Amino acid sequence: MNAAEGARARARTEVTAAIKDEARRQLAAEGAAKLSLRAVARELGMVSSALYRYFPSRDDLLTALIIDAYDSLGEAAETAQADVPEGELTRRWTTVCEAVRGWALARPHEYALIYGSPVPGYAAPATTVPSAARVTMVLIGVVRDAHDGPGLTGVSLPDELRPEAERMAADIAPGLPPEAASAMVAAWAELFGLIGFEVFGQFTRVVEDRERFFRHAAARLGASVGLPAA
Amino acid sequence: MNAAEGARARARTEVTAAIKDEARRQLAAEGAAKLSLRAVARELGMVSSALYRYFPSRDDLLTALIIDAYDSLGEAAETAQADVPEGELTRRWTTVCEAVRGWALARPHEYALIYGSPVPGYAAPATTVPSAARVTMVLIGVVRDAHDGPGLTGVSLPDELRPEAERMAADIAPGLPPEAASAMVAAWAELFGLIGFEVFGQFTRVVEDRERFFRHAAARLGASVGLPAA
DNA sequence: GTCTATAACGAGATAGAC
DNA sequence: GTCTATCTCGTTATAGAC
Questions:
Q1: Can you give the pLDDT at residue A13?
Q2: Does A182 reach chain B within 8 Å, measured CB to CB?
Q3: Is B74 helix (H, G, I), strand (E, B) or coil?
Q4: Among A20, A28, B19, B144, which residue has the fewest nearby CB atoms (within 10 Å)?
Q5: pTM score, two decimals?
Q6: Is any atom of nucleic acid chain C found less than 7 Å from the CB of residue A39?
Q7: CB distance B192–A192 less than 8 Å?
Q8: With pLDDT > 90 as the criterion, what percentage of chain A qualifies?
Q9: In this complex, which of A171, A172, A190 lies closest to B194 when CB atoms are compared?
Q10: Which one, of A128, A123, A118, A124, lies nearest residue A31 by Cα?
């Protein structure tokens, strides 16, 4: 790569970032359904056809925003976890949960993009999966470390659910016992239920001291996957 | 009310229903953000200004759809519960949970309207609250009957959360002990987390046997609010 | 009074010619 | 990359039929 190409690449990166920033702004103002390449271009002083050099279609821009959001959330979870000693499993769990909540409250529109209602007419391609999996991997990592260390306690598995639980363990959490994998998936959905209700306003006039309420709910979820009580 | 008024009222009811039906169709196709009075009118062979006799604005139409959705969900929960003997508290709980899930899977777009991302630029008025509360009232009713009958077991309340839990009990579940009220609110959010993940596709390639998985997750939520284990 | 239709406003999106 | 002609939208004013 020579100097000219380096400059070109740098310019391309910068314009790409500017497009995504403006698109995120519109996401917040109008919602994902109304995201329009033309409006983004207008706001940037570009002509709409120029955007197609950076994103071949509106759906590709959406996909880029979704991947960025998942990565940003995943990184927040990973960073939060890094501050906690590996052996303090329950604290690791709640810290990660709180980081996810904090991220969602700080970026409600990006949260809506990845965990809210699907955008009509848009189907996320498989390329989003690795980024989407990052948060989950952090949570599974805590449970795995607990299993490999002090052990998981108090998680039962009804016979009826065993085949499905074994399949889940094999597919998404190899090394975890089926009862832990099944409890993990439920806790994962429930965690985002708590966060979604808060972000989308369902807790208005219901929960006041939301941080405290969440902290305890998250701890209870940790116990439900077998982590030692705090 | 004389005969002429009866006919007028009937016609008005019919047109109102036709407008809402068509609006629901568009909700499914384009999403709430793009719901358009003009398109509804066009599809019904009316002129757009005529719709204003029935709904004073686009937002009022949206509000009517939201109230209908909440009422339909609330009614589904109430009906499902009516089929279960009052004293079988755990079965009542899981039956109601399954009814909510069934309703959501059958009407994903109406589910998205009430429990998905907020519609940009729209704020639900207070008139939606009573309808929104119906499902919750059914769930609270089960817990209240359990408390007044066999008693609730295994729900603890950390001191730190007690003031908030007492406030929640007083505001939304009078007669319930604070630990039950707090657990109820958490279970409520977690229940809709499970349902939302399924409806919005987050369980794709993760959970296969979703009905079974949900049944057990719902039972576990019931236990978390203190209902006797099944 | 109750309804529908016509026409218009200001705003924004879109398609195509150039 | 630019311009224009033609769409969409929510909403209102007005007029006339029942």
A1: 87
A2: yes
A3: helix
A4: A28
A5: 0.95
A6: yes
A7: no
A8: 80
A9: A190
A10: A118
Please choose, from the candidates B113, B133, B9, the residue with its C-alpha nearest in 3D space to the C-alpha of residue B71: B133
> Can you give the three-state secondary structure of A14-41, one letter per residue?
HHHHHHHHHHHHHHHHHCHHHCCHHHHH
Say which residues have a Cβ less than 8 Å from residue A147's Cβ, sequence separation at least 6.
A175, A176, A177, A180, A226
Please, which pLDDT band fits residue B103 given cuts at 50, 70 and 90? very high
Write out pLDDT tens, residues A166-201.
999 999 999 899 999 999 999 999 999 999 999 999
d(Cα B167, Cα A136) in Å, to the nearest integer? 33
Residue of B190, B192, B221 for testing the chain A interface, max A β-carbons within 10 Å: B190
> How many residues does the structure list for chain A?
230
pLDDT of residue A174: 92
Residue of B nearest to A156 (CA): B220
* Both structure tokens of B139: 């769930």
What CA–CA distance (Å, rounded) separates B193 from B188? 9
Q: CB distance A182–B213 less than 8 Å? A: yes
Distance in angstroms (rounded) separating the CA atoms of residues A23 and A32: 9
Cα separation of B56 and A124, whole Å? 37
> What pLDDT is recorded for position A138?
98
* Helix ranges restricted to H, chain B: 3-30, 37-43, 48-51, 58-82, 89-106, 108-115, 129-148, 162-172, 178-199, 210-224
Which tens digit of pLDDT belongs to each residue from B16-65? 999 999 999 999 999 999 999 999 999 999 999 999 999 999 999 999 99
* Residues A124, B209: Cα–Cα separation, whole Å: 23
Q: Is the CB of B17 under 7 A from strand C?
A: no
Distance CA B108, CA B199 (A): 6
Rounded Cα–Cα distance for residues A16 and A50 (Å): 11
